[in-house]
Every structure is written in structure tokens, then in C-alpha cells.
Amino acid sequence: FSFSWQTTFQDGGEEVEDGAVYNVTLKKVQIQQAANKGARWLGGEGDQLPPEHTIRQYETSKIRAIKAGTLEKLVENLLTAFGDADFSYISIFLATYRAFASPRAVLELLLDRFGNLETSSHGEVANLNSLESEMVLRAEIASVLRAWLDQCSEDFREPPGYTCLLKLLDYLKNNMPNSDMESRVQNLLKQFQNQEVEAVDGFCSTSSSDLVDGEELEISNPEEFSSFQDHVVAEQLTYMDVMLFKRVVPYHCLGSIWSQRDKKENKNLAPTVRATITQFNAVTKCVISTILGTRELKIQQRAKIIEKWIHIAHECRILKNFSSLRAIISALQSNSIYRLKTTWMCVSKDILVMYEELSEIFSDHDNYLTSRELLMKEATSKFANLDSSEKENQKKSQKRLQLQKNKGVMQGTVPYLGTFLTDLIMLDTALQDYVEGGLINFEKRRREFEVIAQIKLLQSSCNSYCLIPDQKIIQWFRRQRHLTEEESYQLSREAEAAADTNILSPKSQKSMVKRISTLFLGSDVFTPPKEPPPKSSPVGGSSGESTDSASVSSCEFNHSETEDVCVTPISSPEDPLKKGYDSDKGSISSDKGSGSSKGSDCSKGSIFEPGSGSDGGSTPSRDSGSVAGSSPRVLPVYNRQSGGSCIIRVSMDGLHASVYKSILITNQDRIPDVTQRALLKHNLQPDAVEDYELVQVISEDKELVFPRDANVFYGMNSHVNFDFILRKKA
């Protein structure tokens, strides 16, 4: 006999139980069956029967996926999800539950409520005392605990008491004595106890505390930097990025967690994410330091350093390290480097073309469609795909790739983490935590898991890297003294003033400046100082405070930014009204400054569909979210009104004025509602609504002040950035 299957899905509506709502999908499988023997005699070609001799059978099964529920129901569903054919539920729950519950609360429910066989009310075994039912329940709980230890063992790292781990160990001793699980938990407890509690800075390999005794931070020696091979520097940057990215705990990236980092009590929140941001900023500042740190450099020498960094960025591209690649491009786009026009004139044309190609990767066109597609294409590929490069650059790249292939060394992919933080913060802003009846909106967690799963996939791919640390380069990198914003801008002015402006004739100068400006603007990268960016080619979707310190954050995004967004270049001290973000807030960097990079490294299949500005979205309702098997909805985004809702950014006048908070508004929201939400976002008392006025920034010298009870959605100017200021009334 031969068989073939054809599967179709049908929406089966909802099922409501006490404390839970389920999405139901009907799975219909068509099985075609035919007897091969005698097929030719019956007129079939080969061993295939004609259609009239094929037997068709249909099987229909029901898939139940919990959509919303109480915490108790969500925990109970861990034990029943497999039977409901919701096979991904356990992984989704474990990756996202920290947004609405603590490990202790979940463990107590799992062990005390459902693990106690005498009082268990779990499903069909509620009142059965048979040995078989006990074994079934024990096996289900063991399966959940095993998955928890496999996927999220860090949840049990609670020094010094380790209460959850000890509770789990006690349960296993009583119910599963001498099992492999018991031994595993004992070993995990010993491992945690033997390890020192790592400080926040301990996560970052670039901390100055890692320096050898007697060493001090120093400005880079150009000769030492020039002696390093480009591909070796790129490999070492990738080595550091890989080590940090593999340590990222995925739930640290959840919007509801990451957006709380500004509170005083949360200064140690999400250390693994902060570490990647610190590394990103360190790379960006290192680039600026090597270019500007030595006053005595001649124009040609400074241009050679810029060329070297472009080559290193290209090597990062070959290594599929999008984090350091973006950090380097960000530094070269920063105002203090960009304004070195005479130096840029000495950069060779071929290298400028290479720089343009690398910058294009992070173009914000169509919600960073280029970088999303690229990451999706290369996430699981063995080597970088450089087919889109210019012919000359492609030849050089192919040689490097061929060397790697000859060595038989596979590569992983290091993404720019800010892409995922962006999407997760957008989801957290756009979707409600609870639905009608106070039930936890688990559809929101399914949408978040789509992003978390991509992070986990890329973390797994990073195991393919085979990089050996070069302590000479790593120590050189750690020794670099990072210039402050003011220092870098002052050194930039000095370098430009000292340049011999007679090297080129006025005509050739004008031609070269035009070529460089066209190069930069053509890739939506940045605009020259003192020149406002064109409306059709926005600079990062908003503007940035002086970015000379190139303090860039992984929470940075532009047209779709929402929470504590870190802005991209470029504006200068001569362009003070273009607001950036306090790096201690928005970019979590050590010096004040703002981000200077653009782009996103998320797959095309992101939960945010690239849009053209049309009203294709829909207002998220309390129970918004996709039914299992249905296509995701287009969510509200920044700078576009869609389906009666949009996302605006609100800063506090005079208090962290450079830090924006994102607010989701609908066409029903009036000034008091929006003001109250903005105060809550900024951790201020919401009962002071009457003391504030809401103002939209129209331009450098124009503001739109809203009347007390105005409808914000209809009253705002939708043709400029959706940037607002909350100001205390005089």
C-alpha cells in the first residue's frame, strides 16, 4: 500500500472554562491509500493508481491552545497541554512567565497544588487513587520539571538561600527518590553554591576592572593599532560578542522586564542584556578614540585609521557579527567623525563604496527590512552571503570566505540585540497584560515567544564559532580610554581646523563633499552638521543629541521605537533642539550620549510587518492576539496612525528631558488619560495630572499645546514626529 497526507486547519472558535479561555483549531488530515500491486494492470503508470482507484480517508483532531487564564490555570495547563496537542506551550510558558509570576509562585502551584496527589484536582485523576493515575501525574510533573531545568536553570539561582531549588529537591526526595532528576538538582545546587555571585560588571568582558594590576586606561597608540591584522581584530570582537550573547537570558529581553530597568530598585535588572550594551558602546567608543585620540596625526594617517575600521567592519560582516559591525558603522556615523570632511576626502573611493554597502544593511527603510531579511537568510547558514557586494569587494570577500571553508570552520550569527528589544518592547506596549475578567493574556506571551525563539536559535548557532582569544588584542581593547562627548567633539574641531585646506582646490573640495554627502544620505545614514535632515530621508526616525561619545544602546530603534529609545545620529552641539537620550537611561552606557546606529537584525518574519503607512493595523483589544494557526495582526507603530491607534513618545521637561517613554494611544484617549499614563511610565505620581500640560514638538521653534480635555489622537499633527513633552504648568 502507498499513503499520502494532506493537512488543513480550520478555526474552531473558543472554549470558555472557569478561569480559562481556549482557542480551538480543528486539524483535518486527508489520507490517500492505494494498493500498488496490479496498478499497471488497472491502467496506472508505474506503481501509481489512477485517481478513481484511490481510497480517501479523513481524520479530524482538535487542538486546544489556552488564550487567557488565571495563574493557577496556566500552571495546570503545563500538565495537560500535551494532551491538548499544544506542544509548544511548556516552552512558551517557561520563556515568558517571569512577566507575570515569580519562580517561587509557579513552583509552589506545581508541587503543592498539583504535585500533592491526595489533594490534586488535576483533570481525570482528580479523585482516583490508583497506582496508574499516580504514575501518570508524576510523569507529567517530571516532564515539566525536566524542561524547566533544561531551558531555564538560571531561574533557580537565588543566592544565598536557594529556596526554590531546596523546595524542589525536597519534593524529589519524597516523590522520586534516587532518580536522575534528584541527582541533577543536587549537582545544580552545588554548582550554584560553589560559584561566586557575579556582579553586574562581571558579565561584561570589557570592564576596566579586568585590567592587569598597574595598567591604566590610555589613548590608543596608532602604530600599535595599525600593527593588528584586520581580520584578527574582527575575530576578537566577535569572540567577545559571542561570549556575551550566549550568556543572555532570554526573559531579560521581555519588554515588561527591560522597561523597568530605570527604577532605582532595579539597577541590577537584566545584567546579561546590559553587558551586551556595554560591549556595544565600548566598541563604538574605541573606534572614536583611535581616530581622534592622537592630536598629532596627519590627515592621511587619520584617513588610514578610518579605512582600517571599515575593513574591520567588513571582516565582521564576513564573520556574520552584526553587533560589532553596527557598532563600528555607528561610530563612523557619529557627528565627531562625520564632520572630518577633509579626512574623509582622503579615504579611497573603493573603501567608501564598501562603507556605503555596510551602512545600507542598517537602513531603516520598511522597518529595517534589509537587515531583517539578511539575518533571516544567514541565521542558520554556514557562511555569510555576500552576493550583493560590489564586484571588486566581492572578489576580496570570496577569497576570505574560501579560506574559512577550506578550514572547514562553520560560523554562527551574532545579531544586533537591539532589534529584539525593540520588537519585545513594542509588543509589551501594544498588547494588554490582562483581558476581561482579570485573566492573564497568554496570547501576548505567544507573540513574545516568537521573538524569544529567534534569540535562542541564534544563541545556539553561536556554538558553531571556533575562535581563540588573542590576549594582546583583548587587553589593548580593554585599555582604551573612552572619550567623553565633549572631548571627542573638541578634538574633532581641532583636527579639522588643523587640516591643510589647501590640499584640494575649492572645486575638488566641493565635489568630494558632495560625493560623501550623497553617499551618506543615499543610505539614510546621517546628514551634515547644521543641515536639517530631509523629511523624506529621516535621520533614524528622530534626531539625536550630540553623539560624539557614540554611546549606543541595544534598545535603540527608530520608526518603531517605544520605550527608553536610544536615538541614532546625527545632530551636534550646533543643533541642540534635536533630542537624544541620556545614556544612563536610554542606552545604559557609562557616559552621557546617544546612540549612533541604525538598523535591526531580526528576521523578516517579525511580529511587526513592514508597512507603507497605510491603515493596515487594527486596534489591539484586550484579548488581542492571534489564534493558533492564524496570521499575526499588524500592531501600532511609532510615527504612524493606524486603525485608530498609534504610539507616541513622551519626555519630561526638565527631568531626564532626553529620555522618552512610549505610550499607546487610541482615538478615544484624551489629555488626562495620556498624561496619567506618561507620569506612570516616568515613575511619577499619577495623581498630579492637573499640574501638567502636554505639548507636541512640531519643529525647533514650534510647539502644539493641547487644551485640557482634547482628544490627543485627532488633535496631534500626524505629519511630524510623534514626540511629546510633559511640562509642569507655570
In short:
One of its GO terms (molecular function) is guanyl-nucleotide exchange factor activity. The chain has 730 residues and is α+β, with helices and mostly antiparallel strands. 41% of the residues lie in helices and 12% in strands.
* Cα Rg: 29 Å
Mean pLDDT: 75
Number of E-type strands: 10
Q: End-to-end distance, in Å?
A: 85 Å
Broad structural category: alpha+beta
Major beta sheet summary: 5 strands, antiparallel
DSSP helix fraction: 40-55%
The CATH architecture of the domain at 228-490 = Orthogonal Bundle
Note the overall shape: globular
CATH superfamily of the domain at 228-490: Ras guanine-nucleotide exchange factors catalytic domain
Low-confidence stretches: 118-128, 199-214, 504-632
| Total of DSSP H or I helical runs spanning 4+ residues | 25
CATH level 1 name of the domain at 228-490: Mainly Alpha
Strand order of the largest sheet: 1-2-3-5-4
Q: Hey, roughly how much beta strand do the residues contain?
A: 5-15%
The CATH topology of the domain at 228-490: Son of Sevenless (SoS) protein, Chain S, domain 2
Domain Ras-associating: 644-730
Keywords: Guanine-nucleotide releasing factor
Protein name: RGL1 protein
Pfam family, one: RasGEF
